[in-house]
Design goal:
The complex is a heterotrimer of chains A (about 375), B (about 100) and C (about 160).
Chain A: E1 2-10, H1 14-23, E2 29-32, H2 61-74, E3 78-80, E4 84-89, E5 94-98, E6 104-114, E7 118-120, E8 133-135, H3 136-146, E9 153-157, H4 161-172, E10 176-182, H5 191-199, E11 204-206, E12 208-214, E13 221-226, E14 239-242, E15 245-248, E16 252-254, H6 257-261, E17 266-269, E18 274-277, E19 290-292, H7 302-320, H8 326-339, H9 342-361
Parallel strand pairs in A: 1-2, 1-6, 2-3, 6-19, 8-15, 9-10, 9-15, 10-11
Antiparallel strand pairs in A: 4-5, 5-6, 7-16, 12-13, 13-14, 17-18
Helix pairs in contact in A: 1-2, 1-7, 3-4, 4-5, 7-8
Chain B: E1 20-25, E2 28-33, H1 38-44, E3 51-52, E4 59-60, E5 73-76, E6 79-82, E7 93-98
Parallel strand pairs in B: 1-7, 3-7
Antiparallel strand pairs in B: 1-2, 3-4, 5-6, 5-7
Chain C: H1 13-19, H2 23-26, E1 31-34, H3 44-48, E2 54-55, E3 64-65, H4 75-79, E4 85-89, E5 95-101, E6 112-117, E7 122-133, E8 139-145, E9 153-158
The chains are: A alpha/beta (about 375), B mainly beta (about 100), C alpha+beta (about 160).
The complex binds flavin-adenine dinucleotide, iron/sulfur cluster (2 copies) and FE2/S2 (inorganic) cluster.
Chain lengths: ~375, ~100, ~160
């Protein structure tokens, strides 16, 4: 039996939920997510968010998730957890999802939004598959969602915002953070996040990297090394640092398998984090039934993910019902433009400009 | 050695724990809470090594914890599952996945 | 943008001195010091201040503070997601510094705590004078600080 909805959303992160909030009550909506709990990345984020009031600034990620989930349910949206979407089948025009018991469900929408988020990049070094080497997000999931310490003494690789924030959260959980390393000459994340951990006694070493992991069946120590101007290891600067957890936080890549499988055009846009589905400013992909929003359309933030989710939702609403969405969508465009300014907004902004060109190349 | 890695007190978070349950990993009986994943329960008990790869016999544990990398595959009640995505159940029998999964 | 702090995460004196109010004001009252030097998309400090002392036109502008309006109430300290705001009171001897705090254990009023620099080094001990908490669980902890260290102490750690 095929279940039918006006809109089927894959991913209950900030992008998917914000879209569901706009659509709920207007059309029938179902949100599918493979995780046991809704909220995407938000539910493990215990730090207060940046941005402006409209984007929940000053709220903690977990509270934003709780609020959005409440709003979405109130509007009659169906949230289905532990539903992993395996693919979109164009001939039947439906997605197939597998539930926790291995049962398959066929679900059809008049429109689809794939807001599948991102995944941590891996880094190449000797023994990088040893148990005890986690993506920073995994450490965050364990400690913030389940109250489990991912380790007792940690080396963090990557001084971007995620590496810095997760390090701070580990300190809050009573975990010893030995140091934060970054291969580049400067810290990638915000100074305010760096300052928090540094004044708590965690040194940040720029131009350093991990050479190898040491341990038999689990991590016991990390060998680190200093890098020269050309990013080459400097002989004799190796140090062995005892640690039972090495966190990797060197960047995220959009999760695009569903788009690729569904036949949406994919292009490589480094400023957006790698391969991303081609989309226009209404977040429509090269398949007119399928929209994208959030990190899957380019690595950014929860604030921009929510705005993109709303834009996609409004565009779908405009297609599905004869309603005037122009003012509301213009407002969201302005909101996005504001968020993508300044030193840290320059990359996604440039990436999205390149994307608009690609979109027009594909006639979007 | 049970609960060695539980966070007892946190400045911001309060953890709502489900009912206490027991499950088995290899030959060991482990305590866990309803509502947590197999991976969370194993990590809390200090278990880091979940499987052995087919070709080189490399030991693996979790990496992404969001269901994307398959590093955490285990055999739970005779099904190959991702430990980071599967909720632990009372009496569940979890074993290391060694080599390639068998399709029944 | 000249950004020496992006190497190690530490603001040096040459940067901090530009953030301070004029000497005269520093000697006359407690004031908020905003150690926020990058154009990040963030503005809760502007909303937190009941006296409208902190303003910014555009979300990625640096916050501007009008110290004439600032009462040193510390509401902004608890609201700032960057934990970048401190209240400095150098009108007394010893002086007082109010820092944001989100760790455990929680100190009590009267308790001695370690005083830490921006670098994370322990540079002395001081008595806790006041504790305030916001509904999002960020504390503002006021500690006694030797006058000559008032521009160095930026965090605390409990001894117990
Ligand atoms: C440590 C950290 C700190 C951060 N701090 C901030 C901050 O201060 N401010 C800010 O604005 N942003 C912040 N971010 C970024 C923000 O969390 C992300 O940009 C945002 O969550 C992206 O939202 P999303 O909805 O696109 O994806 P996600 O939140 O990743 O959600 C995607 C969802 O899709 C589901 N999914 C994927 N594929 C499938 C499938 N095939 N079937 C079913 N479900 C699927 C996943 O399970 C997941 O739940 C931070 C991120 C991290 C990791
Ligand atoms: S201390 Fe109080 S008055 Fe001064 S800027 Fe902060 S909130 Fe405003
Ligand atoms: S709230 Fe804090 S981090 Fe944000 S702009 Fe204001 S001072 Fe800077
Ligand atoms: S740890 Fe990556 S899929 Fe489970």
């Amino acid at each position: 039996m095929v279940e039918e909805y006006d809109v089927v959303i894959v991913g209950s992160g900030p992008a998917g939920l914000a879209a569901a909030e706009v659509l709920g009550g207007e059309v029938s909506v179902c949100v599918l997510d493979e995780q046991p709990y809704a909220g995407g990345q938000l539910i493990k984020q215990t730090h207060k968010f940046f941005g402006s009031k409209e984007h929940f600034a000053g709220w903690r990620g977990i509270d934003i998730a709780e609020y959005l989930i409440g709003e979405v349910k109130r509007r009659g949206v169906e949230l289905k957890q532990q539903h992993r979407v395996l693919g979109y089948y164009a001939e039947e025009d439906l997605v197939v999802a597998e539930d926790e018991n291995g049962k398959l469900h066929e679900i059809r929408g008049k429109k689809y939004l794939f807001a599948t988020g991102a995944m941590e990049n891996m880094f190449v070094f000797e023994n990088n598959d040893l148990p005890g080497i986690f993506g920073a997000g995994a450490a965050q999931t364990l400690m913030n969602m389940y109250g489990v310490k991912p380790g007792t003494r940690v080396v963090m690789l990557g001084a971007g915002n995620i590496g810095l924030i997760v390090s701070y959260q580990m300190l809050q959980a009573g975990i010893d953070v030995a140091m934060i390393l970054d291969a580049s000459p400067t810290i990638g994340g915000y100074h305010v996040h760096a300052a928090k951990v540094v004044r708590a006694g965690v040194p940040i070493r720029t131009r350093y990297t991990v050479k190898r992991a040491i341990g038999e069946d689990k991590l016991e120590a990390v060998e680190i090394v200093k890098l020269d101007e050309n990013w080459s290891p400097i002989d004799g600067t190796e140090e062995i640092v005892e640690a039972d957890l090495l966190c990797i936080s060197i960047g995220l890549s959009p999760v695009i398998e569903l788009f690729a499988q569904a036949g949406c055009r994919i292009e490589y846009v480094p400023f957006l984090g790698g391969y991303v589905p081609v989309h226009n400013k209404f977040m429509k992909t090269t398949n007119e039934k399928i929209f994208v929003a959030g990190d899957a359309s380019g690595i950014e933030e929860a604030s921009t993910a929510m705005v993109e989710g709303k834009i996609a939702a409004l565009a779908m609403l405009g297609d599905l019902k004869n309603v005037d969405i122009e003012d509301r969508i213009m407002h969201e465009f302005e909101s996005l433009a504001k968020l993508r300014t300044g030193f840290f907004g320059r990359r996604p902004k440039e990436g999205k400009i390149q994307m608009e060109k690609l979109a027009s190349k594909y006639g979007l | 050695m049970e609960f060695v890695r539980r966070i007892v007190e946190h400045p911001v978070l309060e953890y709502e724990k489900g009912k206490k349950i027991r499950f088995f990993f290899e030959d060991r009986e482990i305590e866990a809470f309803e509502g947590e994943t197999i991976a969370a329960a194993l990590e809390a008990a200090g278990v880091r090594w979940y499987r052995e790869t087919a070709k080189y016999g490399r030991k693996r544990g979790i990496f992404c914890a969001i269901g994307k990398c398959s590093s955490c595959l285990v055999v739970a009640d005779n099904r190959v599952v991702k430990a980071c995505q599967t909720l632990v159940k009372e009496g569940m029998i979890v074993k290391r996945l060694r080599g390639k999964p068998q399709i029944a | 943008m000249n950004t020496p702090w992006r190497k190690d995460g530490i603001l040096d004196n040459s940067v901090v001195s530009k953030l301070l109010p004029p000497e005269e004001l520093r000697n006359s009252k407690a004031y908020a010091l905003l150690e926020c030097v990058e154009n990040i998309p963030c503005d809760p400090c502007t909303r937190a201040c009941p006296f409208k002392a902190i303003t910014m036109e555009h979300i990625t502008d640096l916050p501007q503070i009008n110290w004439d309006r600032c009462t040193g109430c510390a509401l902004c300290v608890m609201a700032c997601p960057g934990l970048a705001i401190f209240i400095i009171d150098e009108t007394t001897d010893p002086a007082k510094v109010t820092v944001p705090y989100e760790m455990l254990p929680l100190p009590e009023v009267g308790e001695e705590v370690k005083l830490l620099s921006r670098r994370g080094e322990v540079i002395g001990k001081g008595k806790v004078l006041k504790l305030k908490v916001s509904k999002n669980k960020t504390y503002a902890v006021t500690v006694e600080v030797p006058r000559e260290r008032v521009h160095d102490v930026r965090a605390i750690r409990c001894i117990k």
